[in-house]
């Protein structure tokens, strides 16, 4: 597989190339999109992005964990965790892309 | 504690960003948001990963082909290999979600 890691800068670059916006403004917009999603999630709201996927919050109750090294039991405090559910479009494109890559190897 | 109201959808996200950037056409904000998410999918589809510090990282996990079973009949069904997108929440966002806990 490719194995490259993209960052915010690469997403901003895609905006520069495909929309023609200046680089600094593209960077701000990428940041703004992530901030808006984060804010909604921090407020406990679900975020649904059609053709991409949805982010939701799950509340987990307290449970007993174990320190794998010592075997000692430790309580895991109740917490909120983020779950991402990819859309079928996303899953389809990834499977199509990666199966083709694999076949070409 | 948790409000399970109507979810925030993409058009609302676009609306909010457009409202904060009056110099951009609404239609352009829509294109920008779509380019960002499309680029994430495109990266994953060519075998790359996307790491957005503080937010989270998108990666793809490979699931090997296996013999599944129809739970009703017990018949063996071959399940093809597949690639599953996966999101790991970033540290900063994870801490924000639990800030009031």
What does this structure look like?
The complex is a heterodimer of chains A (105) and B (101). With 105 residues, chain A is α+β, with helices and mostly antiparallel strands. Chain A contains three helices and six strands, in the order E-H-H-E-E-E-E-E-H. Chain A has a three-stranded antiparallel β-sheet. In chain A, helix 1 crosses helix 2. Chain A is extended. Chain A starts with a strand and ends with a helix. Chain B has 101 residues and is of the alpha+beta class. Chain B has two domains: 42 residues; 52 residues, HU Protein, Chain A (Irregular). In chain B, 38% of the residues lie in helices and 30% in strands. Chain B contains three helices and six strands, in the order E-H-H-E-E-E-E-E-H. In chain B, strands 2-3-6 form a three-stranded antiparallel β-sheet. A two-stranded antiparallel sheet of chain B has the order 4-5. In chain B, helix 1 crosses helix 2. The longest helix of chain B has 20 residues. At the A-B interface, strand 1, helix 1, helix 2, strand 2 and strand 3 of A face strand 1, helix 1, helix 2, strand 2 and strand 6 of B.
Secondary structure elements and their pairing?
The complex is a heterodimer of chains A (105) and B (101).
Chain A: E1 5-6, H1 8-19, H2 23-42, E2 47-49, E3 53-60, E4 63-66, E5 73-76, E6 79-86, H3 88-104
Antiparallel strand pairs in A: 2-3, 3-6, 4-5
Helix pairs in contact in A: 1-2
Chain B: E1 8-9, H1 10-20, H2 26-45, E2 49-52, E3 56-63, E4 66-69, E5 76-79, E6 82-89, H3 91-97
Antiparallel strand pairs in B: 2-3, 3-6, 4-5
Helix pairs in contact in B: 1-2
H and E order of chain B: EHHEEEEEH
Contiguous uncertain segments of 5+ residues of chain B = none
Summarize model confidence as the mean pLDDT of chain A: 93
Give the CATH superfamily of the largest domain in chain B. Answer: IHF-like DNA-binding proteins
What percent of the residues of chain B sit in helical stretches (DSSP H or I)?
Answer: 25-40%
Distance between termini of chain A? 9 Å
- Would you report the number of β strands of chain B? 6
The overall strand count of chain A is 6
Rg of chain B to the nearest angstrom?
20 Å
Cα shape of chain B:
elongated
Calculate the mean pLDDT score of chain B and round it. 92
Shape of chain A: extended
CATH topology (level 3) name of the largest domain in chain B: HU Protein, Chain A
CATH architecture of the largest domain in chain B: Irregular
Strand content of chain B: 25-35%
Strand percentage of chain A, roughly?
25-35%
Reading off the top of the CATH hierarchy, the class of the largest domain in chain B is best stated as: Few Secondary Structures
Instruction: Tell me the helix content of chain A.
Output: 40-55%
The oligomerization state is heterodimer
Radius of gyration of chain A over alpha carbons?
19 Å
Kindly report the greatest chain-chain contact and the residue count on each side.
A-B, 62 and 56 residues
